[in-house]
Amino acid sequence: MTIFEKIIAREIPAKIIFEDDDVIAFHDVDPKAPAHVLVVPKRVIPRLAEAEDSDQLLLGKLILVAAKVARDLGMSESGYRLVINSGPDAGESVPHLHVHLLGKRSLGWPPG
Ligand code: DGP
Description:
single chain, HIT family, subunit A, 5-stranded antiparallel beta sheet, globular, binds 2'-deoxyguanosine-5'-monophosphate
Protein backbone atom coordinates (compact mmCIF):
# COMPACT_ATOMS: atom_id res chain seq x y z
CA MET A 1 0.00 0.00 0.00
CA THR A 2 1.23 3.51 -0.73
CA ILE A 3 1.19 6.06 2.07
CA PHE A 4 -1.68 7.75 0.28
CA GLU A 5 -3.70 4.53 0.17
CA LYS A 6 -3.21 4.34 3.93
CA ILE A 7 -4.58 7.88 4.26
CA ILE A 8 -7.56 6.95 2.05
CA ALA A 9 -8.16 3.88 4.27
CA ARG A 10 -7.86 6.07 7.41
CA GLU A 11 -4.94 3.93 8.58
CA ILE A 12 -2.87 7.07 9.05
CA PRO A 13 -4.25 10.53 9.80
CA ALA A 14 -4.31 13.48 7.45
CA LYS A 15 -6.01 16.87 7.30
CA ILE A 16 -8.57 15.98 4.63
CA ILE A 17 -10.31 18.91 2.98
CA PHE A 18 -12.15 17.20 0.11
CA GLU A 19 -13.25 13.67 -0.65
CA ASP A 20 -15.63 11.94 -3.04
CA ASP A 21 -15.76 8.49 -4.65
CA ASP A 22 -12.80 9.17 -6.94
CA VAL A 23 -10.55 11.75 -5.31
CA ILE A 24 -9.23 12.81 -1.93
CA ALA A 25 -7.43 16.06 -1.07
CA PHE A 26 -5.46 16.70 2.10
CA HIS A 27 -2.81 19.08 3.39
CA ASP A 28 0.79 18.10 2.67
CA VAL A 29 2.66 16.99 5.80
CA ASP A 30 5.73 19.01 4.72
CA PRO A 31 4.26 22.18 3.21
CA LYS A 32 6.32 24.17 0.73
CA ALA A 33 3.93 27.13 0.79
CA PRO A 34 1.37 28.49 3.29
CA ALA A 35 -1.22 26.49 1.35
CA HIS A 36 0.03 23.10 0.10
CA VAL A 37 -2.60 20.49 -0.66
CA LEU A 38 -2.26 17.13 -2.39
CA VAL A 39 -5.07 16.05 -4.72
CA VAL A 40 -4.94 12.28 -5.09
CA PRO A 41 -6.95 9.75 -7.11
CA LYS A 42 -8.24 6.90 -4.97
CA ARG A 43 -7.40 4.45 -7.75
CA VAL A 44 -3.63 4.11 -7.84
CA ILE A 45 -1.84 5.33 -10.93
CA PRO A 46 1.84 5.22 -9.93
CA ARG A 47 2.84 8.33 -11.84
CA LEU A 48 1.80 10.48 -14.78
CA ALA A 49 4.22 8.61 -17.07
CA GLU A 50 2.06 5.50 -16.54
CA ALA A 51 -1.32 7.12 -17.07
CA GLU A 52 -3.35 5.80 -19.99
CA ASP A 53 -6.02 7.15 -22.31
CA SER A 54 -8.63 5.48 -20.11
CA ASP A 55 -7.52 7.74 -17.23
CA GLN A 56 -8.60 10.88 -19.08
CA LEU A 57 -11.70 11.61 -17.00
CA LEU A 58 -9.93 10.98 -13.72
CA LEU A 59 -6.99 13.20 -14.64
CA GLY A 60 -9.35 15.99 -15.65
CA LYS A 61 -11.20 15.60 -12.38
CA LEU A 62 -7.99 15.97 -10.36
CA ILE A 63 -7.39 19.38 -11.91
CA LEU A 64 -10.98 20.52 -11.42
CA VAL A 65 -10.93 19.37 -7.78
CA ALA A 66 -7.67 21.28 -7.30
CA ALA A 67 -9.35 24.42 -8.69
CA LYS A 68 -12.31 23.90 -6.36
CA VAL A 69 -10.04 23.46 -3.32
CA ALA A 70 -8.09 26.57 -4.35
CA ARG A 71 -11.38 28.46 -4.56
CA ASP A 72 -12.46 27.14 -1.14
CA LEU A 73 -9.12 28.27 0.31
CA GLY A 74 -9.58 31.73 -1.18
CA MET A 75 -6.78 31.56 -3.74
CA SER A 76 -8.69 32.06 -6.99
CA GLU A 77 -7.86 35.76 -7.16
CA SER A 78 -4.33 35.74 -5.72
CA GLY A 79 -3.31 32.70 -7.78
CA TYR A 80 -1.82 29.30 -7.20
CA ARG A 81 0.23 26.62 -8.92
CA LEU A 82 -0.41 22.94 -9.70
CA VAL A 83 2.59 20.59 -9.90
CA ILE A 84 2.87 16.92 -10.82
CA ASN A 85 6.25 15.32 -10.15
CA SER A 86 6.68 12.27 -12.40
CA GLY A 87 9.85 10.24 -11.98
CA PRO A 88 13.27 10.75 -10.40
CA ASP A 89 14.34 13.97 -12.14
CA ALA A 90 11.18 15.65 -10.87
CA GLY A 91 11.79 14.47 -7.30
CA GLU A 92 8.79 12.15 -7.14
CA SER A 93 8.83 10.50 -3.72
CA VAL A 94 5.43 8.79 -3.42
CA PRO A 95 4.58 6.39 -6.27
CA HIS A 96 0.89 7.29 -6.28
CA LEU A 97 -0.03 10.04 -8.73
CA HIS A 98 -0.91 13.32 -7.03
CA VAL A 99 -1.30 16.96 -7.91
CA HIS A 100 0.36 19.50 -5.63
CA LEU A 101 -1.70 22.66 -5.12
CA LEU A 102 0.52 25.47 -3.85
CA GLY A 103 -0.44 29.01 -2.98
CA LYS A 104 -0.80 31.87 -0.52
CA ARG A 105 2.63 33.20 -1.39
CA SER A 106 4.36 34.46 -4.52
CA LEU A 107 5.89 31.45 -6.31
CA GLY A 108 9.17 31.71 -8.19
CA TRP A 109 9.57 30.72 -11.83
CA PRO A 110 11.18 28.64 -13.17
CA PRO A 111 10.96 26.05 -10.39
CA GLY A 112 14.25 24.62 -9.13
P1 DGP B 1 6.24 14.00 -4.48
O1 DGP B 1 7.62 14.35 -4.06
O2 DGP B 1 5.74 14.82 -5.65
O3 DGP B 1 6.06 12.51 -4.69
O4 DGP B 1 5.30 14.47 -3.27
C1 DGP B 1 4.98 13.67 -2.18
C2 DGP B 1 4.42 14.59 -1.13
O5 DGP B 1 3.76 13.79 -0.17
C3 DGP B 1 5.48 15.39 -0.37
O6 DGP B 1 5.25 16.79 -0.59
C4 DGP B 1 5.24 15.05 1.10
C5 DGP B 1 3.88 14.39 1.08
N1 DGP B 1 3.71 13.34 2.07
C6 DGP B 1 4.51 12.24 2.23
N2 DGP B 1 4.06 11.48 3.23
C7 DGP B 1 2.93 12.10 3.70
C8 DGP B 1 2.00 11.79 4.73
O7 DGP B 1 2.11 10.77 5.42
N3 DGP B 1 0.98 12.65 4.92
C9 DGP B 1 0.82 13.79 4.16
N4 DGP B 1 -0.22 14.56 4.45
N5 DGP B 1 1.68 14.11 3.18
C10 DGP B 1 2.72 13.28 2.96
